[in-house]
Design a protein that fits this description.
By secondary structure, this protein is of the alpha/beta class. The protein has 15 helices and 19 strands. A hairpin with a 4-residue loop joins strand 9 and strand 10. Helix 3 crosses helix 10 and helix 11 runs parallel beside helix 12.
């Protein structure tokens, strides 16, 4: 009988991800010491300009806009974003395309070797997020990029992405979320987000009313502060919008811009921040006005107020905290009249669920509540009384829980079956809720009254 040696490490991406889930006793373990040690062992660095984006909401959209504009300008982009909707590979995009699983495998093996250490080095325990972040950063570092765009996962100061020094930090809107890790209020959360700033480097703050802690931190570390409403601003009407820098930063302006392809009024704030970052790095990465126009007009990002063609109207949005759900409600309000709005809703149990629902419940007539495949997720049965206690659409209509489901796809199917062609279905509450309905691709809907 042949004695064939077994592989000493996983050989497929699912095997690696399963291993990463078992290496550390905590899912989230705030601190940079362990991940910095492994990064040093790997000699990790980018070798190109880096833009790091932190914030509560708007990070993914800002990264996508930066990627689109730089891609239109002819630069080879690398993007790290999280979480993914359906496939892990979505977290790493090179040249605008998600990497193949096979391209990540060498980096996973290298992280594991560095984590285990040599003869005189101690083994380091990494969380799933820390391990996979290092693997993606290594993949990006070996991809001969012109610019790397890195989205912070949680906070900023102690996030694994912060092992890479940024050339330009972007801080999007700051709201109450992950308070058990980041602190009880916007000031505490802002301090954590501000940890991505670097001395002498620009930091773009696109939150119109930033916490004082963000401004104080910029002064403390000597970062070059670019603040929306002061150092740059935007304005628009129903047809177009424009962006301009304050004269102290130069005379750059863009006028007559088409609205970004990403829908929603909040996207102008994100676009304004992205343009400020592009201007801050213009000396390293020059971009033409045409690249700006084309990039913003063509940017794509699934699950951000994504309207799917068909009947009934289907809206997908990863809104998962009170601030982002309020923005979703504002965007739904602007869509006009629909006889009935159905919601497919699943969320994490540790969110402020009453606050999430307070603004949007008056817009929802029928709720389809779903379980999600995570221990953190609230069961549909636990969501039901919270939904029933939230504000109803009005005196003439009554908000109702139409059903409880074990997964988002079943909940969506039930919503479609109960909808008329003129109705609207909104899927929201978590990345996992939207990802669940996208599991087999973008749904192609046809209301019951139109089916053959």
């Amino acid at each position: 009988m042949l004695n064939i040696p077994l592989p000493t490490h996983p050989t497929t991406l699912p095997e690696w991800l399963a291993r990463c889930e078992q290496l550390h006793p905590k899912q989230i373990d705030m601190g940079l010491e362990r991940v910095q040690l492994v990064a040093r062992r790997m000699g990790l660095g980018m070798g190109c300009p880096v833009i790091t984006v932190a914030g509560t909401n708007g990070k993914g959209s800002t990264c996508a806009m930066l990627e689109a504009v730089y891609g239109e300008a002819g630069f080879r982009t690398g993007v790290y974003t999280s979480p993914h909707l359906v496939h892990f590979e979505e977290r790493c995009r090179i040249g605008g395309e998600a990497v193949a699983a096979s391209e990540l495998l060498p980096a996973f093996a290298e992280v594991d070797a560095a984590r285990l250490g040599g003869a005189d080095e101690a083994e380091v325990s990494l969380t799933y997020f820390e391990f996979t972040t290092l693997a993606i950063l290594r993949t990006l570092s070996r991809s001969v990029l012109d610019v790397a765009i890195l989205e912070v996962g949680l906070g900023g100061r102690l996030d694994a992405v912060n092992v890479i020094d940024t050339d330009c930090a972007v801080i999007t809107c700051i709201a109450l979320d992950h308070m058990e890790y980041l602190g009880p209020d916007r000031e505490a959360i802002g301090y954590e987000k501000a940890g991505i700033m670097r001395t002498g480097r620009p930091v773009v703050v696109s939150d119109p009313v930033p916490p004082q802690s963000v401004l104080d931190r910029a002064l403390e570390v000597g970062a070059q502060l670019w603040r929306i409403g002061q150092d740059f601003h935007f304005a628009g009407d129903q047809q177009q919008w424009g962006w301009a820098m304050h004269p102290s930063h130069g005379a750059r302006r863009y006028s007559g811009l088409a609205y970004p392809a990403l829908r929603g009024a909040n996207q102008l704030v994100n676009a304004a921040g992205a343009l400020a970052a592009i201007e801050a790095l213009r000396g390293h990465l020059p971009v033409t006005a045409q690249a700006v126009r084309n990039g913003l007009a063509m940017v794509e990002l699934p699950g951000r107020f994504q309207i799917v063609p068909g009947t009934p109207t289907l809206v997908l949005d990863v809104a998962h905290n009170p601030h982002s759900v309020a923005a979703l409600a504002e965007n739904l309000d602007a869509m006009g009249f629909y006889p009935t709005t159905h919601a497919v809703f699943g969320a994490m149990a540790d969110k402020d669920l009453p606050a999430m629902l307070a603004r949007i419940s008056p817009l929802i007539d029928r709720w389809h509540l779903t379980d999600l495949p995570l221990a953190r997720a609230a069961k549909a049965a636990a969501l039901a009384p919270i939904v029933e206690a939230s504000p109803a659409p009005g005196l003439a209509r009554c908000s109702t829980v139409a059903g409880l489901y074990s997964n988002p796809q079943d909940a969506l199917q039930a919503a479609v079956s109960g909808a008329d062609p003129a109705d609207r279905i909104v899927v929201f509450g978590s990345f996992h809720t939207v990802g669940g309905v996208l599991q087999d691709g973008v749904p192609r809907l046809q209301a019951k009254h139109l089916s053959s």
